[in-house]
Amino acid sequence: MDKNTVIGFILIAAVLIGFGYWNKPSEEQMLEQARQDSIATVRQDSLEKAKAAEAKIAKAKEANATIDSTSAFALSKKGTEQIISLKNSLVRLGINTKGGVVKQATIKGYEDLDGNKDLVLFDGDDQQLTFMLAGKSDNIKTNELYFQPSQMSDSTLTLTASTSGGGELTINYLLPQGSYLLQMSIQAKGIAGMFAPDADQMDVCWSERAKQQEKSFTFENRYTSLTYKEAGEGTDYLSETSEKINERIEERLDWVAFKNQYFSAVLIPQETFATNSSMTSIPLDKSTGYLKQFEAKMKTAFDVTGEKPTRFEMYIGPNNFLLLKDVNKQSTLGKELELQKLIYLGWPIVRWINRFFTIYVFDILRNMAIPMGIILILITLLLKAITYPLVKKSYMSSAKMRVLKPKLEEATKDLNGKDQQMEKQQKMMQLYSQYGVSPMGGCLPALIQMPIWVAMFNFVPNAIELRRQSFLWIDDLSTYDPIIEWGSNIWLIGDHLSLTCILFCVSNVLYTLMTMRQQKDQMVGQQAEQMKMMRWMMYLMPVMFFFMFNDYSAGLNFYYFISLFFSAAIMWVLRKTTDDEKLLAQLEARYRERKADPKFQQKQQTGFAARLQAMAEEQRKRQEALQKRGNK
Q: Rounded to two decimals, what is the model's pTM?
């Protein structure tokens, strides 16, 4: 290295050393820098601690959320089942502390299928009711919780399921004295944090296997159904015969009922059940001892804050029309229940007969301690007395046609050709009009009796008052009365022969013979020929009735038998007390009066008879035109 290079390095070092010394901070500056470095370190430490705290809080929140939804009721998910009884003079209910709902229901004073004095409507797993609340992460289901009982008496019970954080879910029960209506409420306390802010509904899942309670499985099954009432409207039900699974009900519902023929369990919310409820009804085999499997899935209002309880009422009792109608007065929910609509009374005109006549007369007679068989006879007599004037008028119309038959045959003897039937009919109608006879009057008895028959068809199977009531040879008017039974089922017949059904069908044949003979005596010409064809159909109807009614209640068959007996007796008395010669003389006198009455003659020229005559004349002209074409 030469001298110049060495001198250059020395000068560079001197410059660097001098520059560093010149830029050296003062003592005050060094203290301030130290202070700034300390603040930065503290800030960094604080930031790291804050992040750690936030992470810890987030982890705690996550843990708390998990506890809220899954572990809050952990203590209430362990326990021992206990059945606590609520009872009054009418019912005895068993409330299970697991699930906190009714698991047993015994209706007092109604004999069961085995002859016990009280009837068990459901027991054990036959019925299940679950209330479900949708939490943030999981669902709270009451059937998984063990409730702690308190405030226990024959009429009151409080059940409480507690959380680890002091929250509660409480179910309160009240069974008033002398009532089939159980009051219940569900209320939350201190568990609002488990739910979303907009949570305001509770799911209700209710199911039941409807137990066979009557002797006739087929007949009882026909009147066992899942029935519901649309809010502010009428009732509807799932098919009694076919399987319905998850049937969607779009309307809001006032109540849902699992209805047997004579007993029901009805769940009634204070608020309506929301739209889109799901209903299931599955018919079961006779060998199971059960009629149907029911299930209803609904939603109703629930206040998660606990300020307002969700209230229900549950009717568990007999299907008695007047009793169900009176339940509305006992209810505390403040709405029109109309539970009497559980009992189907028929189409409008039929329903009116049952609603405003049959039920009240039946109840009045029952309160007089008259045997049920006698009550059916008295109701039959009363109905016959009410309809007698119309029946007599109808019979007299038929009698007039009978005494006029020789005159009609004489007047139309030359009109027997196929092309003369319209003219013959016109001639007959003209004569009927001149004698003052209505050919349609003879049809009135059937028209009068039909609504009454249908009314009783709907009333008797629903009349729980007939249940277990005996009369003469009949042990139970509410079911069939077998004179012979066999173990196996025969198609269309079943496993027995019912005596009242046989009596009804035989009396129907005899009554048909009587009415057919009466109609034959008044038919003229082709009408009589047509009646021969109809006769066999009329004789087949009693046979069809046998297959239909062999499994029906003895009370209904007995009523029909008595009704036909009295109808036949009335017809026989009217026939014996009618003087045909005197009646014919009256008709002849009327005929002469009308012949001499210009107004009547003018009416005949412009009325129905004139239109019929014009139709006959037009037909005659057509026949003549066809004959001319044929000759050509």
A: 0.79
